[in-house]
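Per-residue structure
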Amino acid sequence: MPARNERIYLCPSDNGQPGWIMTFPVWWNRSGFLEKYGPFDKPGSRWFDTGNPWYVDYALLLTMGEAAAWDKQCRIAFAGDPRSQHPETVEAMRLLAERLDSTQWVIVESYEWESGLE
């Protein structure tokens, strides 16, 4: 049975500059994110099917302002979590904040992958 995972694509404000692909931030509340932006199959949802012929993959476009506001809200809520002190998480938080400063759009992709647990 396929499992789901998310990643984010950061699209730069300036033409010709590199974009970034990052895993969905551990401090971003995944269930809260899906609740806020609606389930994939909800009429009027902002998610759209990417057209992958083998899997059911979706994408959502956020403005930098929406992504930054969500990031800030999630950082505050995550502050009490012991994982917030792990060096990898601290570095990922720093990197995302730095990259968001030069980002115009954020694409969140939710994709299926074979977990191998069938």
Summary: The first helix runs from residue 30 to 36.
